[in-house]
Every structure is written in C-alpha cells, then in structure tokens.
Design brief:
This protein is α+β, with helices and mostly antiparallel strands. It is built from 20 helices and eleven strands. It has a six-stranded mixed sheet with strand order 1-2-6-3-5-4, with helices on both faces. Strands 7-11-8-10-9 form a five-stranded mixed sheet. Strand 9 and strand 10 form a beta hairpin.
C-alpha cells in the first residue's frame, strides 16, 4: 500500500514533469511583443474561465531611491489608487491650481530652512500654517477611492501594488469583457500620474515605518543587520529613513517617475481568457501614446569586499532573536540554485536541519530557519539564518548550534534522500504558483525582467535538479565563512545602577 506522503510526492512530481514536457505547448499560448516606445508585453491565453489577470512590473525599487530621498519608490505604491486627471477629482482645473500652490509654498519653506541657524522661525511658522491650509484646499477637490472603486464595480479583485528592493508592481484580476477598461485606466495613470493627497500618503508611509521598524524589535534588528552588512550598496536600507520620508516632496516623485517609469523599463504580463491580437491593439492604442524616454541609470555602487566578521546588538526587553547573514552572489550567478537548495535543507519545514536540531531535539529554539536571498537577489545580497531562543536558553547557545550544523554540511555530503526531498518541494512550490492566472502573470513578468527570458521560469527547474550534494558542500565551504559573516541579535537593556552599585 502506498503511503499518503509518497502518493503526494508522486502526484507533485507528475505535475511538474507534465509542466516540463508541455513547455512547447505552453509556448504556443504565449505571445510577446514590444511597443515602439519600448514597453514589453507577455500574453498567455488560458480559457478555463472568462477572467484575466494583469501584472505590471516596473524595474525600479528601493535601491533606486535617490540619496536623501529613501522611501520615494514606495510612494508610488500609495499613489496608484489616487486616480488620474479625470478620475478622483471634482474639478481637475481647480485642483491642479491648488496642488501647484501647495508646491509653491513648500518651496518657500525649503528656501527658508536652507538658511540653517539664520532661518526666521516666525516666518517658517506662518508658511507652515499656509501650507496646511493649502493642502486642505487641494484635498477638498478629491473624490476618495474613486479610481479603485471604478475597478471594483467592474468586477476587479486583488487590486493592489507592492514595492520591493528591486521592483514596483501593480496587479489585479478582472472579467475578460473589461479588458479595455484596464488598459484605459492604467495607461492614463502611468502616462500622467496625479500626486493627489501626496502629503497625506507620506504620513501613511511614515506610519508604516513606525509600525514595521521603530515599534518592532524584529524590524529594528533587521534594519541594523542590513546597515551593518552593507557599507555602500543601497541594499543596506531596509525601508526609508524616517527623516527622508518626512521631507519627501511631490516634485521628487514626479522626477522619479520621469526617470524610472519610462516605457522601456516596464513589462506587463497578462494571463487569462484573452485574444493576443486584441491585447496588442489595445496596448498600441493606450500605452503606445506614452512617449519613450532614455533607459534609467544603472545602480553602479558595488559593495566592497568584506574582510572580517561584523557584529551588532540591539537592546530590547522583548523575546531575543538571532540573525546570521553571509554574503552571496546575485541571482544570475551559477551558484544561485545551490543557495535555494541549501536553504531548503536547513529550513524545509519540520524536516529542515535547523528545526530538527535546534527546535525539536535540543529544544533551545522556538523557531529557526533560512532565507536564500535577503533583501533581494538582483545584486549580490545575503544568505540569512535566524533563530529565536527558547526560554532558559541564550543567543550564544543558539549561535554555536547553528555553526555546528554548518560545519557538518562542509564536512559531510548531504544524504541523497534529503536532497531529493528539497528539490521536490521547490518544484511543488513552483507548480502551485503557476496554478492561477495571477501567479502565471507574476512569474512571467519577473523572469522576463530579471533573466531576460520568461522561459527561465522552466529552465530554472532543471538547474535545481542539477544541484548535487557536492555542490551544496562546495557552496557551504566557499560562502558560509566567518570572514563574510554579519551577526545581529538582541540583548537585554542594562539595569540602571544605583548610587551604591556605582560606588
């Protein structure tokens, strides 16, 4: 009798194998084209239901934030729902005048602030009061959430956006008969975004930082880890710095848009019940009117070689956490799939080495795991290990146990059964991601932008399958060493000494 887990394993292997065998058939359903202005489209026809998923991928994220303006890429995630010159306003002509007045007053404030200690405080207070009144006047013309509601009343689900270190994405799913509406609304926003309620949303972004970092012991630790591991590369900034966010301007966003939201820097993947010829016609009609522009500047800052271990601690009365990060190459490096497998061996649920030894057997940790690339992988990044010490056990005890596991990986080849199990899980995870239109659109766009060809989505499986126990051992020896290691953890705050203790 075949056991349940073996049946599931066989099923997933069969599904993945079928996927690989049908690549030729899959290609027949994919149409690609590039508009004259440089915007690239990938269209996948699927007919199980009359719905379609859209995924717009802008090849710009937090690493592209200008110096002193961190958090700026994230602002566009908040701007997309604000609408256009025709949607989201009661009177665009008057609203535009009001928005321009806001910027004029802000310019005067900035000019006075540049005087430093010679700035006139009374004048600044007057200008700031005028600014608040001008913002309130501009907001009076806003029809809140009209842009998003227009999608939703036409059947859209999952309307959202996201910002990462390397990208900004916009996505939703809609009935197929609302195809042209999506092209109209999204192209209009990309062509002429309106920085409506910009300063209100700036406050929201600032509050997000407060919640994710300043009020979170784990968030603080992650931020300090990144700033310690990276000295030069913009990966060092987890989220925007508070002072930068508080001073972002709408005109900064407009300049960022002119630089990075050029058609040649945008890829749109569409999957579902669509006709490729109709998609191309609509793309040319709506997105084709966006003028081309020069490709954005590259991130040229390279992280200098790390010449020794770095350690940093964060005082916190909360549950301690241990983070151990090693420098690793980018996603195009031949060793990239090995890091995926290595992370799976260490942290593949309850079968992962970290869980089995630290949590289950020794019971010195409440949780332990690994992440193959942090914060992203477009540029050389970090291979991250983490552990949450159990009550009565220390960070030092957990750190020692982690290193013992890593040293064993360097000395002894992993068992073939464990290697096969991890590869199967990676394949299964991919199969699950490709089960929906939304998942397919997301992966097609990602692989096109990051690898130059969406087919890498499938050839990547072959690269995973090719990873050997020797590869795992070699990568562990080459990269997981003290010289390129950064360690961060919490420590309890020192108890204030009494006068008697100090004596």
């Amino acid at each position: 009798m075949i056991t349940t887990w073996r049946w599931c394993l066989a099923f997933l292997l069969a599904a993945a194998a079928c996927l690989g065998q049908s690549l030729a058939e899959f290609e027949k359903r994919v149409t690609e084209f590039t508009l004259d202005n440089g915007m690239h489209f990938i269209v996948l026809k699927r007919d199980p239901a009359p719905v379609v998923s859209f995924y717009a991928y802008v090849d710009a994220g937090a690493v592209n934030d200008p110096r002193g303006k961190t958090g700026l890429a994230h602002m566009f995630e908040h701007m997309v729902g604000k609408g256009t010159t025709r949607v989201g306003t009661t009177d665009w002509a008057r609203e535009q005048e009001a928005l321009e007045e806001v910027e004029r007053i802000y310019d005067q404030i900035e000019e006075e602030r540049r005087k430093g200690p010679r700035a006139d405080r009374a004048k600044l207070e007057q200008l700031e009061a005028r600014l608040r009144a001008a913002i309130e006047q501009a907001n009076a013309y806003v029809k809140p959430n009209e842009y998003v509601r227009l999608f939703e009343v036409n059947g859209a689900v999952g309307f959202n956006a996201g910002t990462g270190s390397d990208y900004t994405v916009y996505f939703c799913s809609m009935p197929s008969n609302r195809l042209e509406l999506w092209f109209l609304l999204v192209s209009e926003w990309m062509r002429r975004p309106v920085y409506r309620e910009f300063y209100k949303e700036r406050d929201v972004v600032r509050e997000e930082r407060r919640m994710r970092v300043e009020s979170s012991p784990q968030g603080k630790l992650q931020e300090v880890l990144m700033a310690t591991a990276f000295l030069a590369h913009p990966y060092r900034i987890l989220v925007g710095w508070a002072s930068d966010i508080e001073n972002l301007r709408a005109q900064d966003a407009a300049e960022f848009h002119r630089t990075y939201y050029v058609p040649g820097n945008i890829t749109i993947a569409i999957a579902g019940d669509v006709d490729a010829a109709e998609v191309k016609r609509l793309a040319e009609r709506y997105f084709g009117r966006i003028p081309p522009g020069p490709q954005p500047p590259r991130v040229i800052t390279e992280e200098p070689p790390q010449e020794g271990e770095r350690r940093v601690v964060v005082e916190s009365p909360a549950q301690p956490v241990l983070l151990i990060a090693y420098k690793r190459p980018d996603q195009r490096h031949p060793d990239d799939p090995v890091f995926d497998v290595l992370a799976g061996l260490l942290a593949s649920g309850r079968t992962g080495l970290l869980y089995k030894e630290l949590v289950r057997d020794k019971r010195i940790a409440l949780a332990a795991g690994a992440v193959p690339a942090v914060p992203a992988a477009k540029y050389p990044s970090l291979f991250l290990l983490y552990s949450v010490p159990n009550a009565g056990h220390t960070v030092e005890e957990n750190e020692k146990a982690v290193y013992e596991i890593l040293e064993r990986l360097k000395r002894e080849p992993v068992e073939e059964a464990a290697l096969a199990r991890v590869k199967t899980k990676i394949r299964a995870d991919l199969v699950r991601q490709l089960a929906s239109n939304a998942g397919l659109a997301r992966q097609l766009a990602f692989y096109h932008v990051n690898y130059g060809n969406w087919r890498t989505l499938f050839t990547g499986i072959e690269q995973i399958e090719a990873v050997t126990a020797g590869d795992v051992q070699r990568v562990a020896r080459q990269y997981l060493n003290r010289k390129t290691r950064t360690v961060a953890h919490h420590v309890k705050p020192e108890t204030p000494q009494t006068e008697e203790d100090r004596r």
